[in-house]
């Protein structure tokens, strides 16, 4: 028998058994509580030690001959699944098989138990956490459970402890495809009400008395006074649903995500296979994926988002941060209005917008108020909170309203002279300690602050559009930006719930520089005569979230061209000034029509004497990315390659299955071919050597 992998750093989630009296029952109930000994910030998870503890707890509970066995979690957390921090220690496929089989064996005891089993899902239940609940005969869910789901496909795995077989036979193929495929790939989870409506949970109770209500409900089920009915699963539509799901996956990912295809195969198997055969197939599929590059890359990206993003490198001590009691926003356009809403919601301080005339100011404030009303109408905000937020947001054409602001951010047109003029005016109004932040996407923060009396309090604060959705915040340190300013900027970023990365004041910073080098290579191919559709489909094998032309439409050709001009001026040897991109900007035509390339645009840029194949386009673009990232690291734009990967994942949607940019370039050999060395040590974002 193959030994289980050792998880040297496992924080063991203990399964604690206690017998409780439940009114109306002659026998006691056995309640198993999952608890790793920490608060909600370190959620329960299952490693080998945690599974062994649960196994022992089930034995203890069963021996007590209770009326029923129930499993629940510590405050706010049920269980968030397998302990993925131990995955790097799995070095042999047999170890992965052994771990899969252990989870199946332990969880199956709840399914096959002669004593009724219940899951009282009191908090977040993800992956293996939801799977252990699915093995129970009945499930309740708390209104306070923050997230429920099977997100494994998003990190290069599949639900490997029964989820792919149990869920479709509980709620049907459409719901299972949503939970196992669609939600992970769109970064969504189930809320308690959705879980109840889908049939994942049998009943939902308020958080305040969730355990008491669940125990009473379970007693009713055991006594027979409460009958649990579940709809019959329609197997006639099973194959059709999965066929459609496969079409959607192929269209979006082009076969680049093995975990999604494996999940589809397992869902198909669940229609007729026995539970034993289905879970055996799960174990084999899970082992294959654990030993593949996609899972290692995905786990690397997951670690970046969950850990590195919360501990940014190079940040001054937070004790230096100044308190922010009022925020000023220069500009009242769409970006500025989005910022106003974000600052008001997260900081809960007065926010005031200014612009050139009252009409623009009124429009900006109206946008914020409209978004607040929309949130209330969707039930995502109560009227009391909304009323408070409305009172915090105001507008004025008089910049003197910034006199008592602690933090002022400008979000105006990308023109250096204009921005310098704004700061020169504002410096006469605000206090010497007020932070002056710029949302510039490519201009020099140092130059912007050069003529000020206090350049040390100017900092770059680069958000990504849409502000409410994209979590990245590039915080740019100018040559004279001091530590209190930086500390305040990062403190504000945390309050805004953004993932902040410290960036050197270099042209276009991180995301825009990488994407512009990519776009530059794409249009080099177009300028050489490569048809637009060939260029656009060249990157399908990578499974990127958007093709290049759709991405260009999202960014805006004019914006992309402007950033390109900035980088062409700084690095004319690498960033070209594409005549065809200029044609597109001047024409003002939409790039896409009905999700297809606009034929008028294709005709506009047609021509050239040296067209490339799709493979050549892809190879040249990836080689250019490797070169540019190496130069950025040599220049000290960020501390490490991991920061570039984090920026690209959070700011550009670079997919988890690639692990970010640098692990892919390392695995494919492009890094060493172009730059002579890897970006990351062997085994980071890939299989060990």
UniProtKB/TrEMBL annotation:
User: Carries keyword NAD?
Assistant: yes
Substrates-to-products reaction catalysed: a (3S)-3-hydroxyacyl-CoA + NAD(+) = a 3-oxoacyl-CoA + NADH + H(+)
Residue ranges annotated for the 3-hydroxyacyl-CoA dehydrogenase NAD binding domain, each copy included:
326-505
Per its UniProt record, what InterPro entries does this chain match? 3-OHacyl-CoA_DH_NAD-bd, 3HC_DH_C, 6-PGluconate_DH-like_C_sf, ClpP/crotonase-like_dom_sf, Enoyl-CoA_hydra/iso, FA_oxidation_alpha_subunit, NAD(P)-bd_dom_sf
In which pathway is this protein known to take part? Lipid metabolism; fatty acid beta-oxidation
Can you say what this protein is called? Answer: 3-hydroxyacyl-CoA dehydrogenase
The segment(s) forming the 3-hydroxyacyl-CoA dehydrogenase C-terminal domain are: 509-588
Concerning SUPFAM superfamilies, the annotation shows:
6-phosphogluconate dehydrogenase C-terminal domain-like, ClpP/crotonase, NAD(P)-binding Rossmann-fold domains
CDD domains named among the record's database cross-references = crotonase-like (cd06558)
Supply the alphabetized keyword list.
Fatty acid metabolism, Lipid degradation, Lipid metabolism, Lyase, Multifunctional enzyme, NAD, Oxidoreductase
Q: Which domain of life is it from?
A: Bacteria
Q: Which family does it belong to?
A: In the central section; belongs to the 3-hydroxyacyl-CoA dehydrogenase family.
The answer, when asked if Mitochondrion is one of the entry's keywords, is no
